[in-house]
């Protein structure tokens, strides 16, 4: 239990901690937190081309202008999130900004939108990576769900070892992918015509037979489709605490590097699409056609395809880097269970990682590992977060009024307008394709946050958190020790009970059948001979239930002896090996559960270690 009220965010740069070696460098941040954005170059330009294909070859001529508009929005977002990183170094991104400047309810909308986007990113990334693999090896198509789950298990296992560990593992695939895309672009710029068209040969074009005109609606749809390339830009601001000191500067450098690389790759690929007059065809990605045209159908082509497949599958790592930190902040503010705020060794929010993996696995099973089922839901949540973040930062600069605040506020205001318009466009154009699910899920998630917060508030009120409690005092204590036979364990339990309480009572539960009665008679005889100075009370139970007679005794004693503190000392054997736990009868666990459920007695479980 922490506190019932959210605590203000400390916006000062924090000193390095002892777990710094388990945190990220700037290069490691690119590998751990930018895979989602990097991998979007595999489907961002293609999404634009597929929409513009409705206007035929003439429509494809607008690929570069639409991409430039998306790149301009990317530049605004990167500049804005650099400011968010500096203003909110404890992470949380749009949630932290909204919580401080726009109120609790708005901050929950931002948090819910980010959570939905992070979960969908895992599903989209994994299914897209597996789809690329099954395109190369069609025989695996029927097993794509199992392949998706296997990739998810792999990424989850790596992240349970720590975000720095995942960065080291994913650094090589990231470098190979970025290097191969940049090489593809450079090589293509030096060619006047395609080096090869083998990949697209024999595949039918998806250009519309009856081409429509290139109107504003078509361009807006192309823009909204291409905006999927901007998901993941916010992940670095959400996970600032994961960087090494000085974490603000490292996170800012990582954000700029991400924006520069992503912008260069998006614009470069769009230029090549126009240069080679590529048309979308069935069964072959636009990126594969570009690799074929720029590098030729050789080993370099397969390097690009392999790097793309790998990075798409691993792009889920962005969510594993950002979402557990966000969930930890929500838990600290009493909007999620407090267990999500706990850190394991290696600075891992383990429960957040496992929760993300479980929900993503359920989504993969629901979709059957099919990318097309999930993609329409993608990118809406993150644009809601973008807009809230920009508006909050405008208020931030107006309140702070630091030197040069007006240009910064103007930048964020401009960004808020752009992302707000993009949010409306993306939601409207994708609403009937499944986006309505996000529109419904968003308020439901906010409602869940509110319910959890109210529950913690009631608990805090009952516990008197924030108030000075009454001074402690000593009550008379009675310790009850359940026994079934005489042994060293019995002796240890009675010794411990005598050390804790003013009075000790041993109890045994007997059933009416002859076998139990004979055992009870033997125990009474042995107890009298042993004479430990502790009375043995027999409790009869016709149904062989262990917990019910003990809890009834506790309730009766509580009525007979008001003001007496009753403790139940449950002696248990602690095996020398884990597998030996299977040999235990679990009577102690059954009794502890019954006492905790039905009484207010204190439960003390005494461990007697073997070996």
TrEMBL record:
Presence of keyword Membrane: yes
Main location: membrane
Entries under InterPro entries matching the protein: AA/rel_permease1 (IPR002293), APC_K+_Transporter (IPR053153)
Protein topology in the membrane: Multi-pass membrane protein
Entry's transmembrane regions: 49-78, 108-132, 144-162, 169-190, 256-278, 298-331, 352-369, 375-397, 409-428, 434-452
Region (Disordered): 1-21
The protein, known as: APC family permease
Pfam families membership: AA_permease_2
Compartment list: Membrane
Claim: Membrane is one of the keywords in the record: yes
Keyword vocabulary terms for this entry: Membrane, Transmembrane, Transmembrane helix
Basic and acidic residues compositional bias, start-end: 10-21
């Amino acid at each position: 239990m922490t506190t019932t009220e959210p605590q203000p965010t400390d916006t000062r740069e924090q000193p390095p901690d002892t777990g710094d070696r388990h945190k990220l460098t700037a290069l490691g941040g690119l590998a751990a937190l930018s895979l989602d954005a990097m991998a979007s170059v595999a489907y961002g330009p293609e999404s634009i081309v597929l929409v513009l294909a409705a206007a035929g070859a003439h429509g494809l001529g607008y690929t570069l202008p639409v991409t430039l508009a998306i790149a301009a929005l990317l530049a605004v977002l990167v500049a804005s999130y650099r400011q968010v990183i500096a203003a909110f170094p404890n992470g949380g991104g749009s949630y932290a900004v909204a919580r401080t400047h726009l109120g609790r309810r708005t901050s929950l909308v931002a948090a819910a939108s980010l959570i939905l986007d992070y979960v969908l990113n895992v599903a989209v990334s994994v299914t897209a990576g597996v789809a690329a693999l099954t395109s190369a090896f069609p025989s695996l198509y029927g097993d794509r769900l199992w392949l998706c789950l296997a990739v998810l298990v792999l990424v989850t296992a790596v992240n349970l070892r720590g975000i720095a560990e995942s960065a080291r593992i994913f650094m090589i695939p990231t470098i190979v992918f970025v290097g191969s895309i940049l090489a593809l672009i450079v090589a293509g710029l030096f060619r006047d015509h395609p080096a090869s068209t083998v990949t697209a040969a024999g595949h039918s074009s998806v250009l519309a037979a009856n081409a429509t005109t290139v109107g504003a609606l078509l361009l807006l749809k192309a823009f909204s489709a291409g905006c999927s390339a901007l998901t993941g830009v916010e992940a670095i601001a959400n996970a600032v605490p994961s960087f090494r000191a000085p974490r603000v500067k490292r996170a800012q450098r990582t954000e700029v590097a991400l924006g520069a690389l992503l912008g260069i790759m998006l614009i470069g690929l769009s230029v090549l699409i126009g240069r080679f007059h590529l048309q979308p065809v069935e069964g072959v990605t636009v990126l594969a056609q570009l690799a074929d045209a720029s590098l030729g159908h050789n080993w370099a082509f397969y390097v690009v395809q392999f790097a793309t497949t790998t990075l798409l599958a691993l792009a889920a790592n962005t969510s594993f880097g950002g979402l557990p930190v966000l969930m930890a902040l929500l838990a600290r503010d009493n909007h999620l269970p407090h267990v999500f705020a706990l850190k394991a060794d290696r600075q891992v929010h383990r429960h957040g990682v496992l929760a993300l993996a479980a929900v993503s696995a359920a989504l993969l099973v629901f979709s059957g590992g099919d990318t097309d089922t999930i993609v329409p839901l993608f990118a809406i949540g993150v644009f809601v977060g973008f807009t809230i973040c920009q508006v909050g930062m405008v208020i931030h600069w107006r309140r702070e009024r630091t030197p040069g605040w007006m240009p910064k506020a103007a930048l964020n205001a401009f960004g808020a307008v752009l992302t707000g318009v993009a949010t409306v466009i993306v939601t409207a154009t994708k609403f009937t394709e499944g986006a309505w699910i996000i529109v419904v899920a968003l308020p439901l998630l906010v409602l869940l946050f509110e319910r959890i917060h109210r529950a913690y508030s009631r608990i805090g009120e009952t516990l008197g958190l924030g108030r000075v409690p009454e001074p402690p005092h000593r009550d008379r204590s009675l310790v009850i020790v359940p026994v079934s036979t005489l042994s060293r364990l019995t002796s240890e339990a009675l010794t411990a009970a005598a050390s804790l309480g003013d009075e000790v009572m041993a109890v045994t539960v007997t059933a009416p059948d002859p076998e139990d009665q004979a055992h009870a008679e033997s125990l009474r005889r042995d107890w009298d001979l042993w004479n430990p100075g502790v009375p043995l009370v027999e409790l009869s139970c016709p149904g062989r239930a262990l917990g019910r007679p003990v809890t009834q005794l506790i309730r009766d004693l509580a009525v007979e002896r008001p003001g007496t503190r009753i403790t139940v000392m449950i002696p248990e054997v602690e095996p020398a090996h884990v597998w030996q736990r299977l040999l235990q009868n679990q009577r102690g666990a059954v009794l502890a559960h019954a006492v905790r459920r039905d009484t207010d007695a204190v439960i003390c479980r005494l461990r007697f270690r073997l070996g």
